[in-house]
Amino acid sequence: MPPTDMDSDLRRSSTNTSSLGMSEYAFADINNLEHCAKYLNQTLVTFGFPASLDLFANDPVSIARTCNCVYALLQQRQRDIEFRESANEQRQRLLSDISRLEAKVERLEAQLSTKEREIATMTRTEAKATAALKAQIDKLQQERDEFQRMVLGNQQVRTQQIHEMKKKEKEYIKLQKEGRQRGTWNGKKADNDFYKKIVSNTYHAPTRVDMREFLNAPNGSSKQSRPVNERPDADPSQSPLGGRTDMFDLPLHMARDQIEESLRTKMASIKERMVELQDAQKGAEVTSEVTERELELEAQLVEARSIIQEQASIMSKHLEKPERPSRRLSGHLSSD
């Protein structure tokens, strides 16, 4: 609202009253009553109070209007005081809430620092446990590799022993068959048949030369292998047919004694072979015991693998736990 002449007059009157020694809050005096009344009416209209107050009237209506205006001013003043008190109380409550929240924030910060230290400790413990677990896993892997090498070696030894035992069984069966055939020889016809068989084997079955050497040996053992530089035709016992001029090339009535002696020698050698086969069978039993030990070691290896898997799952769960407290703390702070 622009200043009027009445406002300037009121300011000048206020200045005059202050210069006369009156109170600094004095608004009207006997010289500016009309101007003050007009200013008050305009101001009351501006702020929404009843206007057109006649302060110089003596009629009851004007006096009642003036009283109502003053009463409205008093009520507004009372409401203003109540509002100020309410605002002050609310301010005090807010200040106390702020203090309480600050204390809570400090407490939560202390808890957060404690949790961070605990997390750091758990991280170091976890690193140590991980290193120990890794070392244990490496050790178990080395033991597993060593065990596998041992199992492969035992399997190779077992396979070799089984092969040798089968080979000796075949030799034993072959010797038994030869012994039964020679035990049934009688007369000139059997002698001639055996001679023909020897000649046929000489030409068509070279693999039986070692067996013939074994049978021809006087003590039942095979002859030593011929040196490399020795010539085959150096043996004076070669016959024109390629066979040997030994006792099996002679008629039965001429070589009966030698054949009987040779058969007795061969039977003794067969008994020795049987003893060797029995020893080989015992060795096979020992091999079966080794196989049982291998199975036990395999079971232990499976158990060790299961233990390693359980420890790995425990470590993975342990790695997930440190993240949860920090999430809970952040959620708690956001809720506050």
TrEMBL record:
Which keywords annotate this record? Coiled coil
Endoplasmic reticulum as UniProt keyword: no
Compositional bias of type Basic and acidic residues: which residue ranges?
317-326
User: Which residues, by range, are in coiled-coil regions?
Assistant: 84-178
Q: Which domain of life is it from?
A: Eukaryota
Q: Where is this region: Disordered?
A: 215-247, 313-336
| Comp. bias regions, Polar residues | 218-227
- InterPro entries found in the cross-reference section: Afadin/alpha-actinin-bd
**Record's family?**
Belongs to the ADIP family.
Q: What is the protein name given in its UniProt record?
A: Afadin-and alpha-actinin-binding protein
Lineage of the species this protein comes from: Eukaryota, Viridiplantae, Streptophyta, Embryophyta, Tracheophyta
